[in-house]
From TrEMBL:
InterPro entries: 6-blade_b-propeller_TolB-like, WD40. This is TolB protein. Residues 1-31 are annotated as: Disordered. PANTHER family: PROTEIN TOLB (PTHR36842:SF1), PROTEIN TOLB HOMOLOG (PTHR36842).
Length: 333
């Protein structure tokens, strides 16, 4: 069974299951996470931003932010990297040995990053924002257990997924956390919101109890919901471009996850990648010509690297090459 199909079936608590759906991680990572929690309790270290300061100050030209963990450093931290040529070196933005920082999202002006931070015992759990240099951390109130933050095009609001009972529903709030408005009320898991360029819609993944997921669209003014991709599919992690195309990851008939894009009305479906690898978490470049995405990750022993590709599937380039798991990249607007 391939990784994405496995995690779509959902296991564990709501936040863990949602995180697995988004990242493609499996039971091996849950065991790793348990070890991390035990380590965090044993260390009982105060939460600090760590040594990101001077290195992070150089991050202005590094336009892709992502989460990374390694065997030696099993808690995730955030890094930034340039998509330009040569041999780019990631710049660390956070260094928190007892907590995980994941799911980064750029503000539209490129000055701050929203992300999910969580640690042992629930003391640190929710959405935070920080400067792109890694400083000035601010928690977003009311986001305990939340995941998948997405900054609105006007920079004033943030959309996210949050547990309601055993399901996850979509919310939107001002960047200070108030007022939080619940957008969806279903028996399915609603995950990974992404804004339309005009800020009037969100696209998102809806996962049902049968293990299927499809891309949906919701109009914020009326909460009217429309399916973008068909039922019975395995479609995850949509990202809406300024050129009004939605990229997403689909486990297709090959058994592997490939990148696709589609118009918001469901027409114009096009496959971008076709190799026998798992490709996930696409994020559009500002001009809509390229995507950054994660390739790999059949299990924790299989590294996951960032790649770049043109929207027509050409010019595939490997961006990160270390023995690491590089996930959830977001391209600066």
């Amino acid at each position: 069974m391939d990784t994405l199909t496995h995690h779509q079936q959902g296991t564990g608590d709501g936040r863990t299951a949602a995180r697995e759906r988004r990242t493609g991680r499996t039971g091996a990572t849950r065991r790793r996470a348990a070890a991390v929690t035990a380590m965090a309790i044993a260390m009982a270290a105060p939460l600090t931003l760590g040594a990101a300061g001077d290195a992070g100050a150089a991050a202005g030209g590094h336009r892709i932010v992502f989460a990374r963990y390694t065997a030696a450093a099993p808690t995730e931290d955030l890094y930034a990297i340039s998509p330009s040529g040569g041999t780019p070196v990631p710049v660390p933005l956070t260094h928190t040995p007892t907590v995980s920082d994941v799911m980064p999202s750029w503000s539209p002006d490129g000055k701050r990053v929203a992300f999910v931070r969580y640690g042992s015992g629930g003391a640190i759990d929710g959405i935070w924002t920080m400067k792109t240099t890694g400083g000035d951390l601010k928690a977003v109130p009311g986001t305990k257990g939340a995941s998948d933050p997405a900054w609105s095009p006007d920079g004033k609001r943030i959309a996210y997924a949050k547990p309601v009972g055993t399901q996850r529903e979509l919310y939107v709030a001002d960047i200070d956390g108030t007022p939080a408005t619940r957008l969806t009320h279903t028996a399915a898991d609603d995950l990974h919101p992404t804004w339309s360029p005009d800020g009037k819609y969100l696209a998102f993944s809806r996962a049902d109890a049968a293990g299927h997921s499809r891309v949906m669209r919701i109009r914020l003014s009326t909460l009217t919901q429309t399916a973008v991709t068909g039922s019975g599919s395995h479609d995850w992690t949509p990202d809406w471009s300024r050129g009004n195309r939605i990229a997403f990851s689909r486990v297709d008939s090959s058994g592997f996850a490939h990148l696709y894009f589609v118009r918001p009305d469901g027409t114009g479906l096009h496959r971008i990648t076709a190799a026998r690898f798992n490709d996930k978490n696409p994020s559009w470049s500002p001009d809509g010509s390229r995507l950054v995405f994660t390739r790999g990750g059949t299990d924790d022993a299989d590294p996951e690297h960032l790649y770049l590709v043109r929207a027509d599937g050409t010019a595939l380039t490997q961006l990160t090459k270390t023995d690491s798991h590089d996930l959830e990249a977001d391209w600066r607007p």
